[in-house]
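task queued by scheduler; priority normal; single chain, no ligands, no partner chains; default sampling; output format set to structure tokens
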Amino acid sequence: MENMKTEQKKSTILKQLFISNFLLSSCTFGGGFVIVSLMKKKFCEELQWISEDEMLDITAIAQSSPGPIPVNASVILGYRMAGVTGAFIAVLGTILPPMIIISIISYYYVYFKENRVIQIALQVMRAGVAAVILDVVINLAEKVWKTKRKLYLVMMITAFIAVWIFDISAMLVILVCLAIGVIDLLLDKKGRQEH
């Protein structure tokens, strides 16, 4: 009986994972940062499956791993909720909408390219995407600010300047920040062992 309840609970989680990721991916334009913000609202605030700190960790890992951010985040979130099956279902829900939409657009490419209404709609969507990305940036910056760690604050400001003013590759900035984080962790561990 207990085993049946566990299976039903897992089945409900898998269904919710697929539907949530499918809907988020269907309505998200503008790249990975947009969907991560919506994932936070869905999985942290609405479903309360994970904490905001976990979502921040998932975002950091998804950004620094190869591949699209939404797929990476879905793998981690799905695995966290329902193991390997959860990861597969979450990724399936995330990749199906873009595959369907891109297939339709590629079939009607000439029509989309020359249609003035669609061009205007895409321009308007860019403004909305910019607002959502700005929301993500502000939320992530607030989380870093709340840590009150000078190293993190300096890294955040330096990374912003490096990317926006000096046009340094975001990937290089992420790798340098990762290296600094690992060194900080090792030094912190070593300091605790000495005391």
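post-processing summary
- The mean pLDDT is 82.
- Residues 2-119 form one domain.
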